Amino acid sequence: MKLEAKNPVTILITLVALFSLLLTVNLILFFKPVGSNTEKYSGGFISKPEATFNLEIPSKLDFAGEPVPLQNFDVKESFDREFLVNAYWQSNTILVLKRANRFFPIIAPILKKNGIPEDFKYLSVIESSLTNSGSTAGAVGFWQFIKRTAKQYKLEVNDQVDERYHVEKATQAACDYFKESYRVYHNWTLVAASYDVGRGAINSQLKSQKASNYYDMYLNNETARYVFRIVATKEIFNNPGKYGYHIEDQDMYPQIPFSWVQVDTSINNLPAFAHKFGVNYKLFKLFNPWIRDKRLFNKTKKTYFIKIPKPGDLRVFDINVQQLDSLTKSVLRDTTKEDNQDN
Question: pTM higher than 0.90, yes or no?
Fold first, then answer.
């Protein structure tokens, strides 16, 4: 018995049907609902990109050794908000973790020298993300000083020099504020809160609400979130791997060695000054953002210390370290001559 040949149309219809079936199955698998995976979550971020999980709040948290009362539902939920916002703000958190490798070794020793708990370094993170940023209120620098407060804490602020951008001096000014506030409150959490809104506002709220601590006060939205943001940042920084942040050592922003050059004269041309040390003006500004102009008038002979990247570290010039001292004297001598000629 002979088999009948299949009709070409029938074969084509069969192939189309099979293709449609395979396509449907693949679409179902591809567009399966987020979170449909039932693998047990054991803390931190899950490795699967289609899944987003809640984060387990640690059983104990503190700021500067002072416990966060997580047994209070409002406190726990306030922390939860900042914890989730910062842990899942991946781009900013990665950048700040990288920057911290460069700037925490500058900030932490100044805090320690002044007897300020190291946790206050996280305050600079939430203030500026460790950048010399500015706010609409006119606050600038790592510690976000407004002009009036900066001058109160002995930072020079004018058209040519703005020491709010000077990380070492601004950190010292912040420490002076912290110490002054601690003498008032004897409580580091209130010190941190007062940095955001001011001691006057904190004093007023403590009195009017008959409260004795930060966690019991009803505050404006920014200040109410402020300490929780610091504590959330501290938790993430202390346990980055737990929350999905895996940054190799070579990807961290390195500490770049530099030399201090002492200056007590005017400098009429800072780009030329930088080039005499083999540094381009861009790098000079990156290391000295507190100098706001291309000239530095200094008729009072005030002593400034300028950072110059050490030779070889940036591969921008070939001068050896021993030459820096003689170059410094030469530059200052030449600068003085230029100033006299201009005057």
Answer: no
